[in-house]
Amino acid sequence: MSKKKVSYFYHSDVGNYHYSSEHPMKPHRIRMANELIKIYGLHNKMQIFSPKIEQFGVREMTKFHSDEYIKFLKRITPETQDQFQRQMNSFNVGEDSPVFVGLFDFCKISSAGSVEGASKLNLGKSDIAINWAGGLHHAKTDQASGFCYVNDIVLGILELLKYHNRVLYIDIDIHHGDGVEEAFYTTDRVMTCSFHKYGSGYFPGTGNIKDVGYKDGKNYSVNFPLDDGMDDETYVKFFKKTITAVMNFYQPNAIVMQCGADSLSGDRLGCFNLTLKGHGECVKFIRSYNKPLLVLGGGGYTIKNVSRCWAYETSLLIDETELPNELPIHEFYNYYTPVYQLHLEPLYMQNKNDTLVLEKHFQEIYENLKDLIPSPSIGERFRPPDLLINESELETDKFLNEKSDFRFTEEQFNSQIRPFNEFYESPNYREKNKLWVKKSIVDILEKYKLESVFDNKLLESFNQVENLKNSNSNIMTNNNRKNIFQYNTETDLSQIMKKIRK
Ligand code: V1D
Ligand code: CA
To answer: What range(s) does the Histone deacetylase domain occupy (predicted)?
Structure first.
């Protein structure tokens, strides 16, 4: 394996956040991993960055999430939560995803690391970017889920899409990567591929092999359902077969890998029997494709194994020679009792995965992949500005404050626009038919005067754009922005686009 430029994102505050003493998610595990990385000397082989959380806030998070949800996350505290019961229910904040001290800052650390990592890859400053505080794959547009509040993965992928035409997302957390799948369910620009325990009511309950994507995204979602007791040999075999097919047929320009460590043997919430060797072999395999690679954390609830895993995988990513199995003495050495070694032994447990069933699953996935229509090239695609670095003067969080008169410049305004088919609102979730209008649709409608194909609400939005132009202004108030770009309609925008293309 060749040497690569590796960026490592770590914020020294991350280990100080506490969900609650009964809660299995312990951000301290990331600090433990960082200490192992340092004591093994791995930090000398990477560029180390602390995510710039002062420059990351509401504006960056609302590239995916709704304004109302992020505004809520910013405001809510353990002291005030009793007054916000209605919003807590609506945003699914509570038992699994509780309010804790510093929640919003924790979300910033996690998300800023992933987006900055993506930006390093975009600019060719790194070949690999690592953010073990990221990988929070369950968060939805306007809901927390499964310990995840802000979906750093979706935000990171959106950053990558500014430069990369096709992004592959791979998820080896034991849980289904539902939030990321849902976000890109109707686009061919992102392929999502999750391996997960499926069945018997296991969280989150999605990720059936038949869920393959929708409309433009059909066959661009891959789900490999697995059962209890999965061992290294079987997992690595089917992981490699599946990824080989995915890589051949999709040919991504960049890869994001979520390395949830709850798929390891002995995890407090997991039920697989993987060791660091099997889990790490998947990471090594992805690295060998030599594509820009964003590596993220995720679940993992036996914290001494999480830190072992992510320290070991850091060594694989920088291509360090085999780490000594004896753990060096360091601040958290006592956590590793009773076996003060890096590697895990598998447990004696039955592997409930029948190889013939897995083979059948693989064949089904392969059949879907082999008919993929090659994805269109990026062409003249509109590219939003890069991640704001040195743009602190933008006062990014102000736009949600209704009392402030924050206005967008044309550039800032454009950067808020969501590609029209990159977000999927599943019929099972929240508001139906909530669609986002892409600026280019408005432009095309304007160009061809296609009033006949759009409904009154779109006409209204169109007229607002016209009025704005006529007023000779390149600024936009937050209210205008919301009126124009977010509305509920039953109009199917992809049908409109088809008519326009004809
Ligand atoms: F055991 C607990 C104690 C306190 C609070 C929550 C839990 C807990 C354990 N397992 N919660 C779960 C899962 N939730 C449920 C729901 C409860 N409802 C009735 C169903 O089963 C959530 C598991 C989340 C897993 C998160 C993840 O590992 O995938 C992850 N990846 O990146 C970040 C987190
Ligand atoms: Ca998974």
So the answer is: 23-315
Query: Worst-scoring range by mean pLDDT, 128-137, 285-294, 483-492?
Result: 483-492
Cα dist from 82 to 29, 79, 100, 146, whole Å: 30, 7, 13, 21
**50 vs 480: CA distance, rounded Å:** 36
Rounded distance from Cα 203 to ligand 1 centre (Å): 7
Pocket test for ligand 1, best of 203, 263, 272, 310 (most atoms within 8 A of CB): 203
- Residue-wise pLDDT for 232-243, tens only, equals 999 999 999 999
Distance spanning both ends of the chain, measured CA to CA: 49
Catalytic annotation present for 138: yes
- The Cα 237–Cα 478 span in angstroms is 51
Provide the sign of the torsion angle of the four alpha carbons 450, 454, 456, 460, taken in this order. negative
- Is the CB–ligand 1 distance for residue 137 below 6 Å? yes
Tokens of 349: 């447990």
Q: What is the pTM of this model?
A: 0.80
245 pLDDT above the threshold of 80: yes
The ligand placed nearest to the CA atom of residue 149 is 1
Cβ(39)–Cβ(328) under 8 Å?
yes
Beta strand 293-296 with 221-226 is unpaired
Domains in the chain, start-ordered, CATH in brackets?
Answer: 6-370 (3.40.800.20), 391-500 (no CATH)
DSSP 258: E
Checking DSSP bridges between strand 47-49 and strand 6-9, what pairing results, if any?
A: parallel
3-state secondary structure of 148: strand
Going from the C-alpha of 176 to that of each of 47, 90, 198, 205, the distances in angstroms are 31, 22, 8, 8
Query: Does ligand 1 come within 6 angstroms of the Cβ of 95?
Result: yes
User: C-alpha 252: how far from its chain's center?
Assistant: 16
SS3 296: strand
